[in-house]
Amino acid sequence: xxxxxxxxxARDFVAKCGAPTLPVSVDVYAQQIGGAVKVEALAEHxxxxxxxxxxxxxxxxxxxxxxxxxxxxxxxxxxxHVALEISADHSAPSWSYTRRPPxxxxxxxxxxxxxxxxxxxKPRVDAADYSMAAITALADDFDASVxxxxxxxxxxSSDLCAFVLSEGGKVRYCAxxxxxxxxxxxxxxxxxxPSDCLSARARGGERPSxxxxxxxxxxxENWDRDGxxxxxxxxLDQWDQTLTLLWFDDEDLPPSxxxxxxxxxxTQGLRELDGVLPWPGAKKRRP
Length: 287
Description:
With 287 residues, the protein is an alpha+beta fold. The protein has helices at residues 3-16, 26-32, 68-84, 102-115, 118-127, 132-142, 146-156, 178-182, 198-203, 216-219, 260-268; strands at residues 35-40, 48-52, 58-63, 161-167, 170-176, 212-214, 229-236, 241-248. The longest helix has 17 residues, at 68-84. The model is unreliable at 254-284 (pLDDT under 50).
């Protein structure tokens, strides 16, 4: 089952539950599958589990040691197992982004759609500035984790944007906007954070005061275009996780190197060479 199919099934599920309000009620989602949520003591690294009772109803147990936002996601994940008819597969730990079984990944996608419903979330992404502060504010509004919110923020962005999760100084996961995917921009999992980038410096103890210019060549593979790239970051010391937001702020990026001359002639006409690159430089929505 591909990601788009899972997302559409989740949106149908949300619609059956009625018009969602902020923050969404995960109990309503549980009730939709005939389930009830219990908060109990579970194993340290166990997020949640669910079981079908003889009555046909479901019992969803979440870890009392986890914070409320993690519990909310866990409830939605367990609902996804029932709604998608996917059996649980705990062969890899839930925190592993590179070894998650396909069924568990599908349930994560479903859970994100439930917790951050498209019809409520997308308009807010379109109206937001590009910054980790904006993502944090959205996470507060939806009572969701910053990681889930940042991932969907990048995925739904109308511009060229990426949200990167790094652990221990290495990239573990990257969500890209459709524009970046269409342009073939790729951030390789396992890549070490560039030593002089804002994200690496934040991990080293520096306290960022806002976004900074970034070097596209340091972050992206298969990227041969100009344009101004910006970087904003939050570092979580407790888990040695670095959350990075990257975005191109140009109104209209020039095409790849091979087509650049044709693009220039079409958009600006022929001009004398004066040593100044003519690529557009108008910036938008930089805090």
